[in-house]
Known about the structure:
The chain is of the alpha+beta class. It has helices at residues 8-63, 67-80, 119-122, and strands spanning 88-93, 102-110, 127-135. A three-stranded antiparallel β-sheet has the order 1-2-3. β1 and β2 (102-110) form a beta hairpin. α1 packs antiparallel against α2. It is rod-shaped, with a radius of gyration of 24 Å. The termini are far apart. The model has no long low-confidence stretch (mean pLDDT 87).
Amino acid sequence: MRNRKDTRGAVAVEFALVVPVLMILMLGIVEFSYAFLMQASVANAARVGARNYAINYSLAIKTGQSQESLQQAAIQVATDATPVPSNVVSGSFSAVCAPQQQTTLTLSYRYHSLTGWFDGILGSSVNLKGIGSMQCGG
């Protein structure tokens, strides 16, 4: 039977081998969760902008405001609804509003990882796309 003192070093070595793997796994879970949160936030911001445009287009017609300026105002509302508005790359509508027609806002958002460690791996050109659709006047 071996002495208990012989196994103390083995436990420390096993611990030293297992902890980095567990930490990387935990960091990956946190980063994936953050990316999922950012995707949901950008999609929600696109829905907010599409809703703003769909609700206000009839008012704009009555006041003589152009559809383009109304779209830009709605894109600005959507941009302001994102977690970091300066990371919004672009926003565009699929169609101008017309009664009982559907319009879709597509937002492109530059993603940066939570810790910054994965930006080197993923690169700085990772864009999330949020899509929001609304029926005009409905």
